[in-house]
Alkyl sulfatase dimerization domain-containing protein (Streptomyces cavernicola), 449 residues
Amino acid sequence: MSDSSSAASVRTEDRSTPADRQLGPGAHALMRQNFGNIGNAQFQHIAAREVAAPHPPQVVEVAPRTFLIQPGMANVALFETDEGLLLVDAGCAGDGPALLQAVRHISQRPLHTVVFTHGHVDHAFGLWAFLEAGERPRVVAHENLLGHYARYAKTAGLNAAINGQRPGANGRSWPSAPEDFVVPDITFRDSLELRIGGERFVVRHAKGETDDAAWVWAPQRRVIAAGDLVVGYLPNAGNPRKVQRYAEEWADAAEEMAALDADCVITGHGDCVRGSDAIRDELLTMAACLRHIVRHALDGLNAGLRPDEIVQSLAVPEHLTAHPRLQPGYDRPEFICRNVIRRYGGWWDGHAAHLLPAPVAAQAREICQLAGGVTALANRARELADSDLQLACHLAEWAYLAEPQSEAAQTSYVEVFGRRREAEPSLMGKLAFSEPHRRVAAERTKSGR
């Protein structure tokens, strides 16, 4: 397989901006564990067509004429038929040229159909390379994909900020212009049956990480292309900074896929799942885990408990949390629980003072005064971190919010949350616990230090 980095227009790894520097030690390894072929440059330019993944695509033939291709951080499924090719997803924008090369290395048959499993930036934006090369496939997606695109355009600045993105050659950090999006030719609501080369492919809708999610079942091959409904780690059903996720419907989809007795699942990220027993085990355990969290959240809401009481009392059974392919490397059970609470219970946390609160800086200054000053509170946070890191984070943040220019507060804030970040298993948690480092760096830049 030829390396896409040979193309003059494609820029690959920039080792001067490592993810570890942004998210702490071990972050890049965790990203590789979750996403595979992603590097420091593409991590910060996911929407840039000129920034490719650092390594050539990995290609695995999982069944006759059926391939898993990993051009970047997301997987792509390729089904070869006598009539042409069915491609499921197209990766990031920068993956397009390498994906095109990988597909054409496998087969010279025309690209007949492309199915987008959802509209996320790492799954539906690499098709431009095929279109510019003269390919004219029909594109299929769920009807909610257009709303997903519109939401991306409406919140481009927000998505760029929370995902740590930098502008590409076109000046945009996130898809927002009409030319950034490939609009589907065919949309569907619940299910769509495709016939390609005399073979049947079934496209099913299932809310999960998004409301436009879809998956593909190839019954003659006994292969599922699941998109992000199956990823090899705890489902991203509770992302703290993203729009609503759908844990209940995700469980429904997992159970529906498990009932098909498939021989292989091509996942949205990471390694595929092989063997009907392994597939059923993973999917049914995933469904049971999600249903346990949903049931706990709803029981708490119906009992009149506050969100913090519900989350703090969550205990997922060990036989569910111990599954090796449901580990919290990206999301956490607590985040999923909060997402269910948000869906059914609104945004208020149940504490009366938080409904129309005083400014957080004013709260923090009053707490610091009671504690004997900013330095005293900052020092206590560092001391407490040895025995109760979770509580120490509150103290460190109060000290910083009370007096952002204080060196003692800045040092405590970065140090305490640095320890919290290193101890955190989930990538989403690491991102959140990196916020103090960004805030302090910005404050020091502002003050010329």
